[in-house]
Design goal:
12 helices, Rossmann fold, two-stranded antiparallel ribbon, 33% helix, 356 residues, alpha/beta, globular, 8-stranded mixed sheet, 10 strands
Length: 356
Amino acid sequence: MTAQEDTATHPASPDRASTHTYETTDVPVDGGMLRVGVWDPIRQDPVAVPTVLAIHGITASHRAWAAVAEALPGVRVVAPDLRGRGRSNGLPGPYGMARHADDVAAVVRALGEAPASSASEAGAVPADRGAGGPVTVVGHSMGGFVGVVLAHRHPDLVGRLLLVDGGLPLQPVPGLPADATADDIVAALLGPALERLSRVFESRQAYRDFWRTHPAFAEWTPTIEQYVDYDLDEIATPRGTDGHAADGAAFRPATTAEAVAGDSADMYTGDAFPAALDALVTGELGDVTMLRAPRGLMDEPGGMYPEPFAAEWSTRAPTLTIETVADVNHYTILMSPPGVAAVRRDILHDINLGGS
């Protein structure tokens, strides 16, 4: 069963926080339906609550935001599976930052601000749901690139923009030749996170074991396990062959290699992001905050954005504030207590300034 063939009704949630309900819904976009996770705050009064649009990274899914969402009582978090990822992996290309920005713009227009109720029992967008923004937008990794382009292409939908270890040009990878392709650069940056897309795993546990050996996830948590479990499609294989499970079931990561390749090329050679970045530099996008992880995808020192690079961009873009979150890497900035606390603080700060 592919992710896009999943049931059309999905009100049940794999977990339920004390402050939120969680469910998924589908939003129509060009080419099909985009799956969206919604964490709705539990509330007694039928009043609107602030909404945050959360955009995940290049090989992730909306479940990357679970810990952040559950740390925001009184705030509604809407997080799509981007085209080519999660339960949106059946959507066709082309990919790229502009395509994703238009997809998430459709999400904001469909879901917008929350009225009194959660998503419908049928898993589709209720007719009375959504005032269309503006909302606070937070993007992690490639999701930051999408957020910058969204703010440039659809400024009416974005109240304030928060970048989480993403959204600025990526640094050259040491050791790669000057003529390295976009695919070469992204492969060097993502390492095992990209290599796994071509693999088939005999069980969910085998996939968990793969991630448990990843240096970035030295501290395994239930949130990380739920994130990893969601990132699988079950596929049918000949019973008991090729080392797969005896019942004939096997699993592969939900993110498509085609989506990663298309987005990688677009981040380096496309037109949408450079134009949006110019708007950020000139202040057209307003005040923007970026939270920087001091360690990278493999938990290595320096991170995706080394200190000198961050300092350069703080000077180059006067309306950009870059803050370093201590003791986190590119993943745990969303999935560890210190990372979640920093993202929570800045989201609440933006909301209080009128971002939603």
